[in-house]
Amino acid sequence: MTDYDSLERQLTALLDTRDWLTNAAQTSAFLMQTLEKLNWVGFYLQRQPETLILGPFQGLPACNPIPFSKGVCGAAARSRQTQRVDDVHAVPDHIACDAASRSELVVPIVVADDLWGVLDIDSPVPARFSREDQAGIERLCRVFIDASDLTASAPRR
Asked: Which residues form the GAF domain (predicted)?
């Protein structure tokens, strides 16, 4: 079982700048190195209406752009609700950037009622993410939001 209390303390110490770009890169790298059985971790940013564009990430080259109308990331952006998918192949409009991905967790990053983007985490293991993982990663997203000046990168409408 992952110790999210410890990860929260470590990430808080790591994010020692207000710069959102540095913090997004650091958060992606931190999660990729500390969580087991992942093959991709990164941010997609809302910079165009109803569209996510690729931000800092760790893993293979990724799909870009992603419309809100497609895939797990699009669903998280549309609904502003975390999406935890045990089998991405069962999602009819799943966007397969890496054929090895089997499960996915996508957390929307919302600042002052505006969608800033999403944190997308993929695993080659079916049903990799538990409810406890979801709650822990949502807490880590809160650390990222609180540490970062996300207003400097506000979405364009």
From this structure: 3-155
The CATH code of the domain that includes 125 is 3.30.450.40
Structure confidence by residue, pLDDT tens digits, 45-98 = 998 899 999 999 999 999 999 999 999 999 999 999 999 999 998 887 777 777
- 72 found inside a domain: yes
117 within a domain of the structure (yes/no): yes
Phi (first) and psi of residue 74, to 5 degrees: -60, -40
Q: Which residues contact 111 (CB under 8 A, 6 or more apart)?
A: 145, 150, 151
Q: What is the DSSP letter of 127?
A: T
CB 67 within 8 A of CB 50: yes
Show the domain range for 96.
Answer: 4-150
Assigned token pair, 97? 């950037």
